[in-house]
Amino acid sequence: MKPLCPENKRVVITGLGPLSPIGSGKEPFWNSLLNGASGGRFLHFEENDIDQYSSKIACPVFDFNLENYFERTKETRYLSRTSSMALAGAKLALEDAGLTLEPSVSEKGQREYAIKSLDSTLAGVILGVGVQNMDGFEKHHRRFLECHGSKRISPFALPYIQAGSIPAVVSKKFGFRGTSLSLSTACASGTYAIIEACKQILLGEEVLFIAGGCDACITPFVFGGFDALGAMSRRNDAPEKASRPFDRDRDGFVLGEGAGILIVEELHHALERGGHIYAEISGFGITSDAYHITAVDPSGDMQAKAITDALRMARVSPGEVDYINAHGTSTPLNDPVETLAIKKALGKHAYRIPVTSTKSMTGHLIGASGGVEIIATALMMEHGKVHPTINLEKPGEGCDLDYVPDGPVDKTIHKALKNSFAFGGMNASVLLSKFPEICH
What angle do CA 15, 194, 224 make, to 5 degrees? Predict the structure, then answer.
């Protein structure tokens, strides 16, 4: 990994757009993080009997309605929940970045937006999605089966269930005419998308991206698939306590949904327009376990390499890391292996660094998790506080770091790591640096 970026370009985060089970929008989300709120709820499917599942709990985004963000149009009626959340998160992020949304009307008479004083050819959209618009697919497939043939299939069904439709919808809504790309690397998808946006900026291809992840996975088929894998918690009597990363009694993740959308921007472009800088993305590392389709490599070697690659690119030593936002899924295997990887990468310094799991509160948002958790990390850097890992009562075997179980703590964070270690052994780590106050 080269330590210097081409032409010394630098990438910063200037806008945050979280939609999560514990709050949507920057302030509600941050307040819930500090208060240790849980998004765990009892599951309900209108079209499926919940009794067929061993796990009966999830972390939904309650009361989400795209019409709270955009007026209803013919196009929005056909959007999947995943695409709708991506659109809403993008709007939140753009507004938070201080980018003025100017209403416009397309050639077909559809209401869209343009960004004031932004060259649209230098602005792109890169979004990660873990389960590929399955909420839309399941809806149209049910209709296909009920109608016994293709004559009742909507002409919008196929275009809007393709993964590529998600960034396309966002690009169209805001008039971004640069790169439009969908990535899928399971539960590291959002983090990979942000890394890819950084690469494009460092190469000089674009100056600004809507980047992050989204997923609406709480559907009968997806939920049933994870249930069949035995990956989800069966603590059905206490859904708010079921997601318990690093705890001795953890028994799986709690499936969630949401979107974590950021504005990722070239530094000089951000400074010239007076944008607020939350953090600099100063390093990243990507590796593959090449081990198993679901299980992580118990050695943790390639997870550790992703961390060390991120540090090397940022020219940061292990002793300079102030905080780690863990992948922390609450599964029996993931948590001790991630702990091991952190210790392999950081050595003795691992024991003094607070390590917390946002998933203890939000549940596992799959493709959205990386984006939401990078937002959480940026907010912790901004406010000088570390959110807790809730539901951690007795650390499990091999889980011997400081997971901050007793509530939020004050902490000045200059350098923070974010880990995303996905099914299939797809590993990503990002190093965030606090941007010098003097440059604001």
Answer: 105
Neighbouring-strand partners of residue 264: 13, 209
Structure tokens of 97?
A: 């970045």
- pLDDT for 45 equals 83
Global pTM reads 0.95
Judge residue 34's burial from the number of C-beta atoms within 10 Å of its C-beta, 0-12 exposed, 13-18 middle, 19 or more buried: middle
Eight-class DSSP state of 73: -
The Cα 209–Cα 14 span in angstroms is 10
pLDDT band at 334 (very low <50, low <70, confident <90, very high): very high
364 flagged as catalytic = yes
List domains and CATH numbers for the chain: 11-272 (3.40.47.10), 283-439 (3.40.47.10)
Hey, what are 88's tokens? Answer: 């809403």
Catalytic residue, candidates 269, 364, 387, 399 = 364
Tens digit of pLDDT for each residue in 193-250?
999 999 999 999 999 999 999 999 999 999 999 999 999 999 999 999 999 999 999 9
pLDDT per position as a tens digit, 384-399 = 999 999 999 999 999 9
Q: 187 catalytic, yes or no?
A: yes
Evaluate whether 360 touches 389 at the Cβ level (below 8 Å). Answer: yes
Of 217, 327, 387, 399, catalytic: 327
Catalytic annotation, pick one of 187, 198, 214, 217: 187
